[in-house]
Design a protein that fits this description.
Layout: H1 2-35, H2 44-67, H3 71-94, H4 101-128
Helix pairs in contact: 3-4
Length: about 130
């Protein structure tokens, strides 16, 4: 019985020593992780910083895109359609059968909308400068 108690005490001591070694090993791994030796990319602080940088860069890119969003191309397209509509209105007046007022009024309304869009783009360009 005495030998059994001694062996159980020795087993308990060995278990406690094993647990201490595990705790020390976990502490060492935590130190290595913080120093960036083995688990460099798994650090929590670095992950937070890495997530914030791309968000800032995306915001900067969005700002640049809204500033340079191809307004020259849009202005040229608006001018093209304004010319087409003006030609359609003049052609309607010049036709031998007389002016079709329904057609002229629809084309005129579209012309006013395109002209207001063109002025809006012009104002955006002036504000950028």
């Amino acid at each position: 019985m005495l030998a059994f108690e001694e062996s159980s005490e020795l087993n308990k001591l060995e278990i406690e020593e094993g647990e201490k070694k595990i705790v020390e090993f976990e502490d060492q791994m935590e130190k290595d992780r913080n120093e960036g030796l083995f688990f460099k990319n798994l650090g929590q602080n670095k992950a937070l910083v890495d997530k914030e940088k791309p968000k800032e860069e995306v915001e900067k890119i969005k700002d640049v895109n809204t500033k340079n969003s191809g307004s020259k191309t849009r202005k040229n397209i608006y001018l093209f359609f304004i010319g087409l509509l003006t030609f359609g209105i003049v052609n309607s007046f010049a036709s031998s059968s007389g002016a079709d007022w329904k057609r002229v009024s629809v084309l005129g309304a579209i012309l006013v909308v395109l002209f207001s869009l063109f002025i809006n783009e012009q104002n955006k360009d002036n504000q950028k400068d």
